Amino acid sequence: MQNRLRQLPQIQRLLESPPAVLLIHEFGHDDVTQAIRDRLQEIRTAIIAGDDAAEGLDPHSGFFHDIAVRLSGKRDITLTSVINATGILIHTNLGRARLAPEAIKAVQDVAENYSTLELDLETGHRGSRQDHVAAQICALTGAEAAMVVNNGAAAIMASLTALASGKQVVISRGELVEIGGSFRMPDIILQSGAELKEVGTTNKTHLSDYEMAITEDTGLLLKSHTSNYKIVGFTSSPGRRDLSDLSNRHRLPLVEDLGSGVLIDLASYGLPDEPVISDVLASGVDLVTFSGDKLLGGPQAGIIAGKRALIERILKHPIARAVRIDKLSLSALCATLDLYRAPNRPVERIPVLQALSETLETVKKRAGRLAAQIGALDGLDTQLVHTVARAGAGSLPQQDLPSFAVALTCSDCSAQELSRRLRAGSMPVIGRISQDRLLLDARTVADAEVSQVAQMVLSAMRA
């Protein structure tokens, strides 16, 4: 063993060899050095462990090929495009909302050039990035003032920190939500520096519960829209107008975290009555917070809208700087919000709303085109099946969206293996497994993606 260890070459000698010089030119000295060091240590460990295979290891035989493969793998970009065939429209793992072409162009314009991010062109002096979007939000929601931050969690965190730090936040036990990524409302309240004051029970909270909880230490009343679950049966909770009257009597802000954000009424498209932001504010809520990349259909962003005095307090707090939105997200958000303004029809221009409102017949035809393009392959059974899609990302949890999918059953591999092959393709296709079949749901596959999905299935069957 000791003799074999002594025969291992020194790192410096390997670095001076012609194959290493070529790798250094491509990947840099530091990365190549570390890769060689790691590989030699693996060989050394195998020899010490008495691995028979290690006795035949020669650091020159295939050694640099292995190093090149490792370095190439480390340089691979892992954040790439995929095709969403899961049937979940707002899929958190897949980046949530697909941006409209107008938003993509806005991002490209701002990314390629300098911009007026914080410049007032009229005066030539420094401006505020909030000025680009606040008026749009106010026009669409009826709010007195508005601001944006980098995500939805930051919106509620900034609001609570600026308005209630050191004070009590009164909230119903039935609204202490947890959403994806372990975002828990109780934790957010505590991290903001406020004290959590729970009232009522899981299924029933009365207006009197809020009133009895209010003291001189109360900072605000908080509502949290239960967008990712629903309590049914023997339930009750006070309405927004009643809570608004109560908060006004005690001169306390009423804040509601809506999670997702709906700017237009979607009921006419057969969707449940998710609260519309303008209606929530009109009912007396002083401040609302919601996300930009869910039902709104824009980029990741957190939006805060409501009373001017409250918005100004948040803007002046140091946390506003820590959670400010970046220029690319801001440009995409501005372009998305503009699509809600007349004469635009957002359900025709914003991909998330397009998919939500699309007729079942349209989805079925797309699924049929996909099935036809896959065709009859040896070892693959293809069926057109009626299925159910979801809005996803904590939005519309009780709403089934009727859909059609292409169900694939492979005779020589499992649904899990077929799914893996599709994920490993040059354009990964992400489906879902149900009853030992891989479903490719056409509600989340765009028309332009049908041929590409079919090609990826053909490639997966040849793998």
Walk me through what this model shows:
There is one protein chain. The chain is of the alpha/beta class and 463 residues long. The protein folds into three domains: 2-75, no CATH class; 83-90 and 355-462, Alpha-Beta Complex (Aspartate Aminotransferase, domain 1); 101-349, Aspartate Aminotransferase, domain 2 (3-Layer(aba) Sandwich). The chain has 21 helices and 15 strands. The protein has helices spanning 2-6, 11-15, 18-27, 29-48, 52-55, 63-75, 101-112, 134-141, 152-164, 185-191, 207-213, 240-249, 277-282, 308-316, 319-322, 327-338, 346-349, 351-357, 360-374, 415-423, 450-462; strands at 83-84, 145-149, 168-172, 178-179, 183-184, 195-199, 218-224, 254-259, 287-291, 302-306, 380-389, 401-410, 429-430, 432-434, 437-441. The strands form four sheets. The protein has a seven-stranded mixed beta sheet with strand order 2-10-9-8-7-3-6, sandwiched between helices. A four-stranded antiparallel beta sheet has the order 11-12-15-14. A two-stranded parallel ribbon has the order 1-13. A hairpin with a 3-residue loop joins β4 (178-179) and β5 (183-184). α4 (29-48) crosses α6 and α19 (360-374) packs parallel to α21 (450-462). It is globular, with a radius of gyration of 28 Å. The two termini are 41 Å apart. The model has no long low-confidence stretch (mean pLDDT 91).
Helix content: 40-55%
Number of strands: 15
CATH class of the largest domain: Alpha Beta
Which of globular, elongated, flat, extended, rod-shaped describes the shape? globular
Identify low-pLDDT runs: none
How much strand content do the residues show? 15-25%
CATH superfamily of the largest domain: Type I PLP-dependent aspartate aminotransferase-like (Major domain)
Rg over C-alpha atoms, rounded to the nearest angstrom: 28 Å
Which strand order spans the largest sheet, edge to edge or round the barrel? Answer: 2-10-9-8-7-3-6
Backbone structural class: alpha/beta
Structurally, the number of domains stands at: 3
Q: Give the N-terminus to C-terminus distance in angstroms.
A: 41 Å
Helical segment count: 21
The main sheet comes to: 7 strands, mixed
Question: In CATH terms, what is the architecture of the largest domain?
Answer: 3-Layer(aba) Sandwich
How is the CATH topology of the largest domain named? Aspartate Aminotransferase, domain 2
